[in-house]
Specification:
98 residues; alpha/beta; Transcription Regulator spoIIAA; five-stranded mixed β-sheet; 3 helices; 5 strands
């Protein structure tokens, strides 16, 4: 199950599992964000390749509009996924929520 919502200070908070079943829900929400967006992943427990695709599509769209997607609060096992896949080179990844 995935929950994604606008948090305080414009931060987008995501919790649960971002997998193929939840990817359309996440994409629909993220399609509405603009500019520089911080995604608080401290409550995210799992991300699949479909979830990575959602983040990549969102990043490309934001970069085209001179924005970006910043990730924060990734748990160590998720940070490993980003590192092994090379996605750590595509996103600014902060250690904790801003």
């Amino acid at each position: 199950m995935l929950a994604i919502e606008q948090g305080q200070g414009g931060i987008v908070v995501v919790t649960g599992r971002l997998d193929a079943a939840e990817a359309p829900k996440a994409q629909a929400f993220l399609d509405g964000v603009r500019g520089e967006v911080t995604l608080d992943c401290s409550g995210l427990d799992y991300i699949s390749s479909a979830g990575l695709g959602v983040l990549l599509k969102t990043q490309k769209r934001l970069l085209a509009g001179h924005g970006k997607l910043r990730l924060t609060g990734l748990k160590s096992h998720l940070r490993d996924i980003f590192t092994y896949s090379g996605f750590d080179q595509l996103f600014e990844i902060d250690p904790a929520p801003r």
